[in-house]
Every structure is written in C-alpha cells, then in structure tokens.
Amino acid sequence: MIHQTNSLSAKMSQRDPRKLAAGFWATLVVLLTVVACEQRSTETPSAAAPAKTPEQQGKYIVLIGGCNDCHTGGYAESNGQNPPESEWLTGVPIGFRGPWGTSYASNLRLTVNEMTEDEWVNICRTRRVLPPMPWPSLNHMEEQDVRAVYRYIKSLGPKGVKTPPNVPPDQEPATPYFDFVPQHLERLQNLAP
C-alpha cells in the first residue's frame, strides 16, 4: 500500500499542478451536483409554493423561448430591460429578409385575440412557413406548453397594430429589414475537415 501511495505521489508530482487543480475542482463540482440532486429529490414540495398557473408557465416559456427577441420591439436591443411587459409581443414592423423574401414577427397579441385556443394549438403543431421563426421547434412543443403560452398572451389583451404582410423574394420591402442573406458561401470549403 505504501509503495502504491509513493508511486501515485511520484506520478502526481510530475503532472502540471494547474491540471491537477482543474481536475480537483471539476470533480468537486460533479460531486456537489450529485449530492444536491439527490437531496432535492428527497425533499417534499412546500405547501406554501403553489403550482404555476398556465399563465405563469406561459410567461416563463415566452421568456426562455426568446419570443420577445423578435416579437417585441426594443427587447433584444435592451437586453430584456425594455419595454415593459404591457408592451410585449405586439410585433415589429422591421422585416427579416433572406432568400425566402421578407417576413415579419407578427403581433401575437392580435393573433391570439382572433383565434381559439384549439386553433392556436393546431397552428403551433402544423405551421411551417418562413424563417427566422423556429417552426420546427415550435411544432415539437408539448401541447400543455402551447396552451400555456396561448393563455399568457391572451391574458395580456389585444394591443398594437398588425405587422406588414410578408414580401416575396423578388420585391423590395417598404420597411426597414434585417438582411439574412448569407455572404461568402465559398468560405465553407475552407471550414471542411
């Protein structure tokens, strides 16, 4: 046993001390995470912490899903500090122009006001239209989450105006737009392994 310990000490003294410290900290983080997860799984929920309402869950999904980044003017530019929640999801009249034409982030407050919850669920499940909306991701969202988003948006009430209609690729939009046209595609050859 002493020989093994001395052998281990000799090997460790030959190693870079920074790597040893990094390994130690990584191991410590993993162990603390495992302990925290096991402790959390044995705790019972507090009676003082009621389950989220569908509206609260919907707001959470809107926030983590990045919906405001495109559907709320000034949100992404202010790092989520503006505008206030009362102005969220009212659409943006600045287009997203790419090979598909020019698309706009719609006013979801008006959209939701004009449809039933079941119609919203159907659109979120089946629609596959223009970028940059991440339709493939939305199409896979759990139904209860889609319904929660609907209820949250509905709770905000209708506000604002409709965004401009999409513009075909061969037409110049009358609004400002973000250019999503890829540049220097020939450089992809340099990135291939």
Task: Please tell me about this protein's structure.
There is one protein chain. The protein has helices at residues 2-14, 17-42, 54-64, 67-71, 108-113, 117-126, 135-139, 143-156, 188-191; strands at residues 95-98, 101-103, 177-179. It has 193 residues and is mainly α. It has a domain at 54-179. It has a three-stranded mixed β-sheet, with no helix packed on it. Strand 1 and strand 2 form a beta hairpin. Helix 3 crosses helix 8. The longest helix is centred in the N-terminal third of the chain and has 26 residues, at 17-42. It is globular, with a radius of gyration of 25 Å.
Report the strand count: 3
Give the mean pLDDT.
81
**Main sheet strand line-up:** 2-1-3
Number of helices: 9
Q: Proportion of β residues?
A: 5-15%
C-alpha termini separation: 48 Å
Radius of gyration: 25 Å
Spell out the blueprint of helices and strands.
Layout: H1 2-14, H2 17-42, H3 54-64, H4 67-71, E1 95-98, E2 101-103, H5 108-113, H6 117-126, H7 135-139, H8 143-156, E3 177-179, H9 188-191
Parallel strand pairs: 1-3
Antiparallel strand pairs: 1-2
Helix pairs in contact: 3-8, 6-8
Keywords:
globular; single chain; mainly alpha; 193 residues; 3 strands; three-stranded mixed beta sheet
Concise summary:
The chain has 193 residues and is mainly α. Helix content is 49%, strand content 5%. A 3-stranded mixed sheet has the order 2-1-3, with no helix packed on it.
